[in-house]
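Tutorial handout. Part one gives the primary structure; part two gives the three-dimensional structure as tokens.
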Amino acid sequence: MVYTTRPDTLFGATYMVLAPEHPLIEELKEKITNHDELIKYKEKASHKSDFERTELAKDKTGVEIKGIKAVNPLTNKQIPIWVSDYVLATYGTGAIMAVPAHDDRDFDFAKKFNLPIVQVIAENCRGVHCTPAGDQWSPLQHPYTSIDNGYMINSGFLNGLTPKDAIKKVIEHLEEKGIGHRKVNYKLRDWVFSRQRYWGEPIPMVYCDTCGWVPLPEEELPLVLPEVKDFEPGENGESPLAKQTDWINTACPHCGNPAKRETDTMPQWAGSSWYFLRYVDPDNNKELAGKKALEYWTPVDWYNGGMEHTTLHLLYSRFWHKFLYDIGVVPTKEPYMKRTSHGMILGDNSEKMSKSKGNVVNPDDIINDFGADTLRLYEMFIGPFDQATPWSMESTKGCFKFLDRVWNMEYNVQNSTRTIS
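Part two.
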């Protein structure tokens, strides 16, 4: 069973991916010819957090399941089944249909393992004849992920429909055939809040043998991190703070007996969930921000961020803001009026920038060679705001030449004016 939010792209599903923990791997153990390889991969995946596994910018890893195949219910073609840690067992059914032409992670995975990419949505045309039909490899340099624009292609009875209309029609078709049904699914899951590192907000809790866990009283807040020279974690995996005995040992706020501070720190989400509120009154030493400043500046008109953090940051920042509103710290129910995400800048080989791949572009080098205006101009015209786009040094040079011509034109005009006068 596969859960998807994009049934409109079913004709473009060219492989399946299971979470490493998926029970199907054990149920079909006798038919799988590389079961031992899958178990080893599962063990490696178990050492990663959910965030590490689903991070958009990370390199994709995976193992193809040998001995079994899946069948695309609309094309009736056999497609391979893979195991990869970017799929979580806790979300949906722990299995996805992979549509690389229209999903960032599936696209990266297909590129790495040389899997078919079939485009089923075209942006600027309507009908069957926009691109070659059939199992043609997509000419896309990056996936087309928009659900608000474009028309279906290479999709049989869905051709010519908008993606939103296609979703309704394909669900009706699957239910009539008895091979699928609509379902609402939620992404909420348990969240481990503590981190075993120095850089993070200290958790204002102490442990007392008599009283158990006790929060610090408000007059002792904020709790400040101690100055340390060694930021390495302990041999047993404890936080670097676990070695700071002078800071750890304290008194219980309830009974006064000896107690120990919590040595784990909060994750980066703790600060990033509300930092934008601090911008409205950054010099205020008495409160998060003054009432008048918050009333004038909030809610934020437009909040933009990276694509890989869209879901989690949007969820957490809104959660924190709702809490702050409930206790009277902020005056608005919503943190921002509009939230968008920009696409990822890829290397000139259309892969994610990585030192190991040698395709990293250093902005300082661009500024030194061509100037800051060239960098700004190229970023303005590099491509669609919400989609991944490869960096091009040729286009960068083109922007430099354009600005050079503009400068020369102004220079020549000024010189001509002087000559006439």
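Part three, for discussion. The radius of gyration is 27 Å. Confidence is low (pLDDT under 50) at residues 131-138.
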